[in-house]
Amino acid sequence: MEISPLRSYSMDILYNPYMFLPYYHVPENYVHWRETPESHIYSANLPGVRKEEIKVELEDSRYLIIRTEAVYESVEPAKRFMRKFRLPGRVDLDGISAGYEDGVLTVTVPRRGFFIDPADLPENLHITATASAA
What we know:
Elements: H1 11-14, E1 31-35, E2 39-45, E3 54-59, E4 63-68, E5 82-86, E6 97-101, E7 104-110
Antiparallel strand pairs: 1-2, 2-7, 3-4, 4-5, 6-7
């Protein structure tokens, strides 16, 4: 049995957009977003930035803005960073939290779900449609 050289590679390697850049270079302003059942998590690698220089803001209750602002004047020009994300619907704006540790900023935006209490359902449920068996 002969294995094709194409099949021996992982799909992640084949579709990695940074594959041809040296050392898998990630752009400077890259923010990783991932979704969990409980929240949306944004992670930004901000090495050399002090905690006081990071601002996480909400705009019009729709946009999450992550930026850095220089707190002091120095000889070197300050690195500027700014990303703006449209928040998905049904999120808990009051529960947004942020943490900065070892040069990585993590912003957690919890989802606002709804809960149907079984006690609120009527005792006699009526089937309004049935699935057909084929």
